[in-house]
Design a protein that fits this description.
- The complex is a heterodimer of chains A (about 110) and B (about 120).
- Chain A is mostly beta strands.
- Chain A has no helices and eleven strands.
- In chain A, strands 2, 4, 5, 6, 9, 10 and 11 form a seven-stranded mixed beta sheet that branches.
- In chain A, a hairpin with a 5-residue loop joins strand 7 and strand 8.
- In chain B, strands 2, 4, 5, 9, 10 and 11 form a six-stranded mixed beta sheet that branches. A five-stranded antiparallel beta sheet of chain B has the order 1-3-8-7-6, with no helix packed on it.
- The radius of gyration of chain B is 14 Å and the shape is globular.
- Classes of the chains: A mainly beta (about 110), B mainly beta (about 120).
- Chains A and B meet through strand 5 of A and strand 4, strand 5 and strand 10 of B.
């Protein structure tokens, strides 16, 4: 099925460990995003990639890095995980560019840092 | 600062009943407003998207309204079903150039439908 695929679905890390969250979309979308969702708060943008080859910081980029590997894939890396990064991470994509098409979200990665 | 506030935080209703969820926003300049449904353990799925000139939009049993003057929106669910149990998220997109990265999310209303 067409959509946004995130891996892994669940992960537990120790403080200081590193990991990469993977995201791939098969809808030929130009723009891809990484959000985090914390209890009682709206989704917050970490990083985004408006098009292949570009990345920009969002609202909460500290502690994260991203790579737009190609048009399909956009990865999020935690170099030294901290308990404050315990969250559910969502990847999304769109061809919006100011239009009215919807954003397609993945199913999320639930990350716990102990 | 752009903000989206939703009420109530949570709501419990009986199957078959109607309900209305509220969204107030202070995003400027305004481009469009979206309602998403998020099932537990899943990503958000789009229900409706409305621009400044649209007052109402329906998607099956879901009807969204928008009052751009008062910066308020509502989502009305008719004849609720057990499958409507989810979090409903109001999202406002800012205008001005491209909309890349300019979505402001509400915290969501958790709806529980009991048989």
């Amino acid at each position: 099925n067409a959509g946004v695929t995130q891996t892994p679905k669940f992960q537990v890390l120790k403080t200081g460990q590193s990991m990469t969250l993977q995201c791939a979309q098969d809808m030929n979308h130009n723009s891809m995003y990484w959000y985090r969702q914390d209890p009682g708060m709206g989704l917050r943008l970490i990083y985004y990639s408006a098009s292949e080859g570009t990345t920009d910081k969002g609202e909460v980029p500290n502690g994260y890095n991203v790579s737009r590997l190609n048009k399909r894939e956009f990865s999020l890396r935690l170099e030294s995980a901290a308990p404050s990064q315990t969250s559910v991470y969502f990847c999304a994509s769109t061809n919006e560019g100011g239009g009215l098409r919807g954003y397609t979200f993945g199913s999320g990665t639930r990350l716990t840092v102990v | 600062k752009n903000q989206v506030e939703q009420s109530p935080q949570s709501l419990i209703i009986l199957e078959g009943k109607n309900c209305t969820l509220q969204c107030n926003y202070t995003v400027s300049p305004f481009s469009n407003l979206r309602w998403y449904k998020q099932d537990t353990g899943r990503g958000p799925v789009s229900l409706t998207i409305m621009t400044f000139s649209e007052n109402t939009k329906s998607n099956g049993r879901y009807t969204a309204t928008l009052d751009a003057d008062t910066k308020q929106s509502s989502l009305h669910i008719t004849a609720s079903q057990l499958s409507d149990s989810a979090s409903y998220i109001c999202v406002v997109s800012a205008g001005g150039g491209t909309s890349y990265g300019k979505l402001t999310f509400g915290q969501g209303t958790i709806l529980t439908v009991h048989p």
